[in-house]
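Field guide to reading this record: the first block holds the primary sequence, the second block holds the structure written as discrete tokens, and the final block holds curator observations. Each block starts with its own label. This record concerns Glycosyltransferase, catalogued under organism Leuconostoc inhae.

BLOCK 1 — SEQUENCE
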Amino acid sequence: MVDKIQILVAAHKKASMPQKECMYTPIQVGSALASEKFAGFLYDNNGVNISAKNPYFNELTALYWARHNSDADVIGLVHYRRFFSISKKKSLSAILSEPDLRELLQTTAVIVPKKRRYWIESSQSHYRHAHHGESLDVLRSVIATRQPDYLDSYDRNMAHSWAHMFNMFIMKRNKFDAYMDWLFDILFAVEVQIQDDVVQWDHYEQRVYGFLSERLLDVWLDKNHINYQEVPVIFMERQNWLLKGGRFLARKIGIGRIV
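BLOCK 2 — STRUCTURE
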């Protein structure tokens, strides 16, 4: 039976938070570097943590904190502007509720977002058009060396035209711990090899380990034959589709990355 559920809401700035659902817990990421601590939040620099790495690991600092400090039986991560929602209504009052989640957990151990589909390119080509491709080369090399049993799954998933993105998921504790230990073993090894290059990139691209990890969730699920349930994600802020389209076209015709 599932007892305690903790869904961390990662935020680096003040934002509206769920009020009626007690399973949601706001956590201020990068707290070690923050000039202001947000009242009513957890801080990712308490206990065992990598809070100071937040400019490079992004929301993963919240997940690392949870792996080593949370006592919950089910752990998840959403963002201050992205939430799971069965109804797909753009309102904090319509996000995934605890009763609905408990019902889902009766038949699955893992909740993930709906697939993000690229249609005309692979997950790998999409990454290379959007980010520094050498980080992907190092990632594959590290997997081949440290986790060789996962290499076939990695290649297979990078060839897909879809992926479960945003580093958002909800997992029962045993799955969460196993995934975190596997994920950070790989990312820390990649960090050793590319950290001197990363500090010279712009601030957006310095979030490389967060970008890489988005490609690794499906690898882990696939290799371990873990069934999952997809749930829609709602984006709370207005999205600039014209800017997004411009970025996409710029990447495709080789102008370069647009931040």
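BLOCK 3 — OBSERVATIONS
The longest strand covers residues 5-11.
The chain has a mean pLDDT of 93.
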